[in-house]
């Protein structure tokens, strides 16, 4: 844990200085200040374009998933999480990037963040996890076309350091929070690593 905290403090400094870290908080405040629930501080620390959310901002319950688009268990739990958000108007589900499986994971994560700059991040996110079979370039091109995403702007935004840093910060927060793989979940303040059926996790909601 000491390794992660030391490196996380470096990331806090970098992202505050580059205006990517969205709230000026110290390392001690982020990890050890109990005046606010930790899972909510995660969302405050990340800029809005890092976040794909289903459900209202003022929901009583917050579910967070750190995920990778090439993770089979992330794909398996995705419809369960969407169903949860649709069934319960007191719950929001937030999806955050944690691309750890391959270089392609990182590229797709940056693409979804870039699509958020066109207000298309949620649609692209859902489309990726709804895709039949594996993600291929042909399927990806068709999905972008179907969603009416401006491909030129998307490519330009993907090349920006800001977007790359957003993905790095999201992933580093995941690791600092205890994630050793994907999916990594917060059901309110309860952290769970790995796939667990959502119907077994609803007991952690209010």
Descriptive terms for the model:
206 residues, alpha+beta, Glutaredoxin, five-stranded mixed β-sheet, 9 helices, globular, disordered N terminus
Q: Please give the domain count.
A: 1
Strand content: 5-15%
CATH architecture: 3-Layer(aba) Sandwich
Distance between the termini: 30 Å
Q: Count all strands and give the number.
A: 5
Mean pLDDT over all positions: 89
Radius of gyration computed on alpha carbons: 16 Å
CATH fold field value:
Glutaredoxin
SSE blueprint and pairings:
Blueprint: H1 2-17, H2 27-32, H3 38-45, E1 52-54, E2 61-67, H4 72-87, E3 91-97, H5 103-116, H6 121-130, H7 137-146, H8 151-158, H9 161-176, E4 184-187, E5 190-193
Parallel strand pairs: 2-3
Antiparallel strand pairs: 1-3, 2-4, 4-5
Helix pairs in contact: 1-9, 5-6, 5-8, 5-9
Q: What do you see in this structure?
A:
The protein is an alpha+beta fold. It has one domain: Glutaredoxin, CATH 3.40.30.10. The protein contains 9 helices and 5 strands, in the order αααββαβαααααββ. It has helices at 2-17, 27-32, 38-45, 72-87, 103-116, 121-130, 137-146, 151-158, 161-176; strands at 52-54, 61-67, 91-97, 184-187, 190-193. Helix 5 (103-116) runs antiparallel to helix 6 (121-130) and helix 5 (103-116) packs across helix 8. The chain starts with a helix and ends in a 13-residue tail after the last strand. Mean pLDDT is 89; it is low at 1-19.
């Amino acid at each position: 844990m000491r390794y992660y905290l030391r490196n996380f403090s470096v990331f806090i400094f970098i992202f505050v200085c580059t205006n990517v870290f969205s709230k000026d908080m110290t390392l001690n405040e982020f990890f050890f200040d109990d005046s606010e629930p930790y899972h909510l501080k995660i969302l405050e620390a990340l800029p809005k374009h890092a976040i794909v959310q289903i459900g209202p901002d003022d929901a009583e319950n917050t579910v967070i998933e750190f995920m990778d688009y090439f993770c089979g268990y992330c794909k398996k739990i995705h419809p369960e999480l969407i169903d949860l958000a649709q069934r319960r108007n007191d719950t929001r589900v937030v999806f955050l990037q944690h691309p750890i499986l391959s270089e392609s994971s990182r590229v797709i994560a940056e693409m979804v963040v870039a699509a958020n700059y066109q207000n298309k991040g949620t649609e692209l996110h859902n489309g990726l996890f709804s895709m039949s079979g594996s993600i291929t370039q042909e399927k990806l091109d068709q999905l972008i076309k179907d969603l009416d995403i401006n491909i030129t702007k998307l490519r330009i935004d993907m090349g920006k350091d800001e977007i790359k840093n957003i993905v790095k910060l999201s992933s580093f927060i995941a690791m600092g929070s205890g994630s050793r793989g994907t999916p990594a979940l917060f059901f309110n303040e309860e952290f769970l690593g790995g796939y667990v059926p959502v119907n077994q996790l609803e007991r952690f909601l209010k």
